[in-house]
Amino acid sequence: MPENSMLHTVTSADWFPRWLVPLLFALIGTLLYANSLGVPFYYDDIQNIVINESIQLEELSWTGLKEAAVSEKPTRAVAFITFALSYYLGGEQVAGYHVVNISIHVINACLIFWLIRLTLQLPSLGYTARDAGLIAFFAALLWLVNPVQTQTVTYIVQRWNSLAVLFYLGALLLYIQARQASSRLRRWLLFTGCALSGLLGFFTKEITAVLPFFILLYEWYFFQDMKRTWRLRNLALVGGLVLVFVAIGTVYTDHYSLYRALLDFEIPEYTNRWFTLGERLLTEPRVVLFYLGLLLLPLPSRLNLDHDFPLSYTLWDPPVTFLAIATLAALLVLAAVIARRQRLLSFCILWYFGHLVIESSVIGLEIIYEHRSYLPSIGFFLLLVLLAFRTGLSRRMLVTGFCLLAVVWSVWTIQRNALWADPEAFWLDVADKSPGILRSYNALGFLHMENGESDEAEAWFSRAITVQNQFRITSRSAAQPKWKTTLDFNQAHSYFQRGILRAKREAFPEAGKDFSEAIRIAGRWIPRAYLYRGMVNQKRGFDKAAMKDYSSMISSKPEDPEARHYRGDLRYKLKQYKAAAKDYRKMTELTPDDPVAHRKLGKALMAAGNYQAARQSLEKSLEFAPADWKWREDIKTRLMIIRQHEAAVSIPDTRAD
Fold first, then answer.
1. Under a CB-based contact definition with an 8 Å cutoff, are residues 234 and 190 in contact?
2. CB 215 within 8 A of CB 223
3. Do residues 216 and 176 lie in contact, with contact meaning Cβ atoms separated by under 8 Å?
4. Per residue in 628-651, pLDDT tens?
5. 550, CA 20 to 30 Å: which among 79, 287, 335, 611?
6. How many angstroms separate the CA atoms of 577 and 549, rounded?
7. Number of Cβ atoms within 10 Å of the Cβ of 327
8. Strand, helix or coil for residue 472
9. pTM score, two decimals?
10. How far is CA 498 from each of CA 336, 361, 412, 448, 519, rounded to the nearest angstrom?
């Protein structure tokens, strides 16, 4: 008997206006996310887009696109190419990035509708076209409007996530079409498209690595009628697929060291985390259930960019840990038990949990992020709609209920996007919901600093420093990070920025301590801390310490002209003219059109007695200087002195012996 026997008998025509679905979804997506077009760059956007010079294309070229592809994370090359194209078309104007993200989200909703509709009409399930259309429409609609999705759509850098899902769904759809193709040529063309889409997804975000397993699971559930013999026969294929994807990842990303570490039973990601593998494995079942709660009740007050999710330390600490593990186990057992009688419901359960395996299991990623539910939630919304249609309620009541729910969630999505659009309100919201995490305080410090509100900025940076120090004291984790964690680096940046503010108000001893703390925590990762500490030391008369700091900065960033500038000035002040000239000469190489660099080099060479080279540098300085440059007269005077000296040297000595 077809699985849909519990549904109402359909008496109306087998018809659904499918061509209206993309138009309707596009309209809804535009309305929901129209107020997000001005949302600025946040958090990981800065590292991967704003300061990532490799994606900042001025002209289209294969070389530029290749550099963009491997710029930050080679495993996400496709997404970085799209960032480069977005930059090429609109620079740092955020609206263009958001338009692309919204478009991807709408396309994904359409693909979900198509995928569910095709699946429901397979012979093994036997849904009518009308039932399949209605269920697919409302599952995709609820997925489209759910406020939890804002972290994937509105957060620009999470195009990684949404674009990977687009390729993932595309590959699965092409596979289903290939299995139903009537001609051999069409079948193999579709299979080729499936493989290409899967590879594009794999090089967009690593979550698509589970695609081969779900294709096999889909095949077994819906095309092979769950035959045991087919399952056993294809175990070798599963193993082969695993090896192929591992090989591709190794060759492309040069992550041999990662796989070697895994063979040695080590997971290197935990060397820079404030939690252990055991603590993560105990915590993630609660996180997975928390995602379900968010999807079902996505109030804006429950959503957060940076959840401060408490760790689980044992099965009973906290007590809900055991309950969460038991619940997950029960759901997986339920999926296995009902697989033959209710295979679609079983598949929905496995879809949700299976697509969280990569980001919610052994890999040492951050504990929780809402965007991780983007792909898994497709199974949740399909299950929700299926169960609703089996309640016995009239179709009119169901349609009305789903429409009302979609309206409520849409309002919440718009509200959430409005918060994203106001950076100060957004980070205050994060701080309020996660008071024990310093990132929001650090971000608020930067905001006030950019607005010229130094006192407020310093207070927020101080708060960030205090919160992280308190975290170290109160943390109950058994983790002992070998490297600095992301939280440590955030604290180091807080020390660094507070030091800058203190230096500006001439609180030099306090500023020096802050720069020293930034260096102690992050060292070469914040090389400008050496530069600023050197400036502070020089202001305080500690020339030897200042010289050492400038040299440390140059050692960390040899192509930065600013440190050469300050060390050259200090050497000049100490009458080390030849050494100063070396620094200034490097400045002229790094900034050949800078008149200041040439002027300083000319002065140092002149003081060292190298008049000919000094004259050349000073003349270059005048060549590059603006007409109203304040140092023009000084340089002309120096050139006159040099010419007089050269003239005096060139006059022959006629005196008698």
1. no
2. no
3. no
4. 888 888 888 888 888 887 777 665
5. 611
6. 19
7. 16
8. helix
9. 0.89
10. 56, 37, 37, 12, 13
